[in-house]
């Protein structure tokens, strides 16, 4: 059905108001994996952490909710398996949506692009200099993969828009997150801390989307925890704990649909754990629905000081806890490392934190009853945070005015965190001859007295807000946005809010809505923070946490009153939402796309030894060999660089079972926990490369004859790129 016909059908069929809980809902999902070789990963800012294969493909998952009726307002929310949102990406996605036939339907006002904060995805897609130093500049391939995938997932959601309804649920998830800077948290006023049982937020909020026959079509949840379960030695692309949870939940749902499966009754029950194998992406079509698979997304929230490394931080391999106030061992930060619940195996830690989120989401999904009712609305503006005047009101009612400052990062920024200590080591970067760093180091600036005073007590390491060579090092104009879907209020922030900063923001907005909303808002109003949305500006701590200058305080860019600035500006948006009044658009953020420098060398060419073709097995499995669940099968293929063809919405790996007619059917691929694709060159300048496909045979595997296949593309000296594939010998899997 074409869009205009579809739209007309909707407006005729649906004149019901959203007061009855009827909305138009649409979901979409698209691959954003990007280049799986050579590109520095975004997050730890470790120059040696470059992509070299895939554990789990990355996706952009979107929902659109619209008021039913001809010109009902709508909100589009995109949960993307990237480290963060990016202004450059937002601008590009919006312009592509405009160029399609959507006109003004989608704009910066009603689109939210929120990163899950995985530290295991290819980087180079932010437009400000500081965030592309370790990726030696901009990486167009990463950028394009994200733009195209986000765009495609929104288009899918748009095309899928149909009558439906939404349920909301929330609940506590314990044991999946801890505070990694408790000494800063402790500097918050004691009366304020007393209001909370924990020093991180434990609440998960979930939306369950239903079609008009009340069949579930998807679920999106918010819960704060860094996606740093995979540590900075990881080179396989992964969505970390949230990306894995999403694959698991989609597989769980698909599996549940297979009525003949005897384990269905167990799924989601307390004590149940997702085994690796349940992730067969045999996407079932929903009964009564034409095209869309079930989509599950796990979104980020106020995770600024929140770690998934729940065992705590210890000195190297010892059982000695790090020094509490500074996270050091013998006065140094490098040896102080956080441990996940699967320590020392970070895959195990990732899986455990993913499963905890998955189980809570399934529980909330199953028990969801509260209907989402009310209007869809949104208010958005851009704020220049460099010299924002902020009026503070003391408890006794007296007011004072303070200002924010141009961006700067403090010394503790270079120390990193217990999730990735000492990550940003500029001196090391320099001696290693990072070409991008050499170009930009001339820009290093000594901050003047006004800036030093404004940022006090932060000792300024890099005065990013006042550095503009070769272009801006840090953002100054940032988007802030409130979206309403009935009783759910989503606050999109372009930053990582600490636990307490997030609580203050949620409270300020809720109080304002209730005070100004003339009964529209009340105790049922839920406010969630969508972190890392639309742009990125590092951290936001409370004024009190800022005084302690841990990593999060040192990375709070606009000075001690950054949070107060957000509270003031969000209150204005909340008033506008409550009164449905217009909001000034504010200054425009710059579009720096044309200025980007890209220094990552392209793939020159791929070769194989004489007599060997791309896709031939280098190390094969023994023909007819027999394996059992729990065994690992590994095959090494001669391959080309994965950057030649990203195989978007396809796969580099495939584990196939032989059918009765002799044909092969793929059961597991790049999207499955049990399969890893590892890529490497024998030496950094070699034109040869190997793909290792590693399959850990899951417990629930089907017995049969299997083979492992690899897909790729090779580049010739003259630049032409040719696809190839190859398969291993066949082998037996017995139970
Ligand atoms: C997962 O595997 C374990 C054995 O490793 C088994 O006991 C359990 O039943 C499996 N779970 C499911 C859901 O199949
Ligand atoms: C941490 O610092 C605070 C404030 O300076 C101090 O009171 C406390 O004793 C320190 N804690 C430890 C464990 O050193
Ligand atoms: C990272 O994880 C790997 C694999 O689980 C482990 O061997 C390594 O010690 C960890 N490194 C750090 C710095 O935590
Ligand atoms: C009100 O509180 C502020 C900050 O705590 C203080 O500086 C000021 O003196 C107080 N003013 C009055 C009139 O009590």
TrEMBL record:
Coiled coil: none
Cofactor annotation comment: Binds 1 zinc ion per subunit.
GO-annotated cellular components: endoplasmic reticulum; extracellular region; Golgi apparatus; membrane
Domain Neutral/alkaline non-lysosomal ceramidase N-terminal, residue spans: 23-568
Domain Neutral/alkaline non-lysosomal ceramidase C-terminal: 570-733
Molecular function GO terms recorded: metal ion binding; N-acylsphingosine amidohydrolase activity
GO biological process: ceramide catabolic process; long-chain fatty acid biosynthetic process; sphingosine biosynthetic process
Cleaved signal peptide residues: 1-21
Subcellular location: Endoplasmic reticulum; Golgi apparatus; Secreted
Reaction catalysed by this enzyme: an N-acylsphing-4-enine + H2O = sphing-4-enine + a fatty acid
Residues reported in the UniProt entry to bind Zn(2+): 117, 226, 496, 539
Enzyme Commission number(s): 3.5.1.23
Superkingdom classification of source: Eukaryota
PANTHER family: CERAMIDASE (PTHR12670), NEUTRAL CERAMIDASE (PTHR12670:SF1)
Record protein name field: Neutral ceramidase
Native organism: Selaginella moellendorffii
